[in-house]
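Aim 2 progress update. The chain analyzed this quarter is reproduced below.
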Amino acid sequence: MHPKKNILLTGRPRVGKSTLIRKVVERLKEFGYKNIGGFYTLEVRKEGERAGFSINTLNGKTGRLAEAGFESRFRLGRYGIDMESFEGVAVKALADAIDKADLIAIDEIGLMELKSRRFRELLIKALDSPKPVIATIMRSRYEFVDRIKEREDTETMVVRVENRDGLLGEVVERVRGMV
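Predicted structure tokens:
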């Protein structure tokens, strides 16, 4: 049995999935793995309240994913999704990672990101590629997400407050064995 090359981190909102994937990438870089591509999302806060989300690529580009009150035909709750920014920054970073990186990091595979058809196509391409993928993925059931979680080459790890610190070392060692 081959080790599963795609690692998905899931769990409750705000449990620390995004922080964990960023720490995994930082630790891998400390071990000398420099060629990591992809993106992560961060909460944008204004006056102590969550006002939206930004996209941050692993090569230093940033963009807006979503913002409360932003006018867009792509919406999730009170957030308007900036599809042009998402596809120009995050989806481009994902395409570049598939072509050039040794490891692909994606934070996150969630409802906002899945509204982009191009993101869904490239996500499947990344998972199908020979390169390892580490990603955070929504916990809720959703047909597209459920199919990804059920892939033979994919392992889903549940992040909890009690295990997230231990998962850091475990995930880093798994990836080091693949790259």
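The chain has a mean pLDDT of 94. The domain at 6-176 is CATH 3.40.50.300 (Rossmann fold). These observations will guide the mutagenesis experiments scheduled for the next reporting period.
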